[in-house]
Design brief:
The protein is α+β, with helices and mostly antiparallel strands and 393 residues long. It is 39% helix and 17% strand. It has 13 helices and 13 strands. Strands 9-10-11-12-13 form a five-stranded mixed sheet, covered by helices on one side. A three-stranded mixed sheet has the order 1-7-8. The chain has a three-stranded antiparallel sheet with strand order 2-4-3. The chain is globular and about 65 Å long. It starts with a strand and ends with a strand.
């Protein structure tokens, strides 16, 4: 029997839908609605760069222009319905998933402890105990409260002040949680004071954990290889995801060929039975043009982005200026179901202006009057969101 084929357009539309980019962008978004949005897309990456606005705010604003950062702050710092930890990078995650992260904490403890042994750092276990005791007795704290405000020039853990390293270790292994951010500096506390009590439950058994990690990833990707399933949360290994896919293929998974947009051969991927009905009932992405964060979950997997959208994207922060093709921090442009270009914009807080420094449309994408008008409308939305007073294009 021939393997079914899913067209590239169908695959793009499904991914956009699962990642919250087909929902009406002007529908009023309540605090509860924001929580449901984050639960639906899975997580929101956090990043320190604020060229326009922090990455997590840009990600959420791209999906709904009525998004209010105060709601995110409340869910994180007051309600305990969101927590910050690690996926592929530091991310904001629904606290409903905290039980599954307990498996990650246990794995991190083994990995990080081994690193410390390789670096031959002595007295680290004592430092961990000291830091935990300090927070239990005195309440939440920042690195500078313990004398470890900043890493040295190399930025490696091995070069950090012991207290700073201890805080990071305890956070990555679940002994501490991030209660809030002061500026962008983490404020740490005991998890029971940060996570809503009804989410502070035991970790599931390993088999149930692996099943959740795989099903929840596939439900947010639509179609995926076992490697893509493992990479979504980075909670399990590709080998574990492959074994799960092979087990589930007997009754709860099927394989399809997903057409590519970049000219490469179709990708053999896993999906759920009944996918045809899902594809037939998909809403279309709004025709508006949107600026995406470089860390938007839609484009996080650069190889998948190239395959599905024929959009070759990388962030050039670490590329020497003379070798950059576009710019330091360039934002992809999403129009309907296509990635049509990229833009270099900056919020100059001193001048109170949102400034366009560069604009590049993809080959065969015309800078038509209508497209430029859609871009101008999006830049005006971002100007209002950031609080800039003027728009310079």
């Amino acid at each position: 029997m021939a393997t079914p084929t899913v067209s590239n357009k169908q695959a793009r539309n499904l991914l956009l839908h699962l990642q919250g980019l087909t929902a009406p962008p002007r529908a009023a978004l309540s605090k509860q609605g924001l929580l449901e949005m984050i639960q639906s897309i899975g997580f929101v990456q956090v990043d320190s760069i604020q060229t326009v606005e922090r990455a997590h705010h840009m990600i959420l604003f791209a999906r709904n222009q009525t998004y209010r950062p105060k709601h995110l702050k409340h869910l994180l710092e007051k309600d305990g319905e969101l927590f910050e930890n690690w996926t592929h990078d530091a991310s904001i995650i629904p606290s409903a998933f905290y039980r599954y992260w307990r498996h990650r904490f246990a794995r991190e403890e083994l990995v990080l402890a081994e690193r410390w042994r390789r670096w031959n750092r002595t007295g680290f276990e004592e430092k961990l105990g000291e830091v935990l005791s300090f927070i239990e007795e005195n309440g939440c704290c920042m690195s500078r409260d313990l004398g470890g405000d900043a890493p040295k020039a190399s930025g490696g853990w091995w070069d950090w002040h012991p207290s700073k390293a201890a805080l990071e270790y305890l956070w990555r292994t679940g002994a501490l949680a991030v209660a809030r951010r002061d500026g962008f500096q983490k404020v740490y506390d005991i998890p029971r004071k940060v996570i809503a009590p009804h989410h502070m439950v035991e970790a599931p058994e390993k088999e149930a954990f692996t099943h959740w990690a795989c099903t929840s990833a596939l439900d947010r990707l639509g179609f995926a290889t076992h490697g893509e399933i493992a990479a979504f949360w980075e909670l399990i290994s590709p080998a574990e995801a492959k074994a799960w896919c092979e087990r589930q293929s007997a009754h709860d998974l099927i394989q399809v060929e997903v057409e590519s947009a970049d000219g490469s051969k179709p990708k053999l991927s896993y999906t759920r039975p009944g996918y045809e009905e899902v594809l037939a009932d998909l809403p279309l992405a709004p025709a508006r043009l949107r600026v995406l964060s470089p860390f938007d979950p839609l484009i996080r997997d650069r190889k998948r982005t190239l395959r599905l959208f024929n959009f070759d994207y990388r962030i050039e922060i670490f590329v020497p200026e003379s070798k950059r093709k576009y710019g330091y921090y360039v934002f992809p442009l999403l129009e309907g179901d296509r990635l049509v270009g990229r833009i270099d914009i900056k919020h100059d807080r001193k001048e109170k202006a949102l400034i366009t420094k560069g604009l590049w449309f993809e080959p065969k994408i015309r800078a038509s009057v209508g497209r430029r008008a859609r871009l101008d409308a999006e830049l005006e939305r971002i100007r209002r969101f950031t609080g800039a007073e003027t728009l310079v294009t």
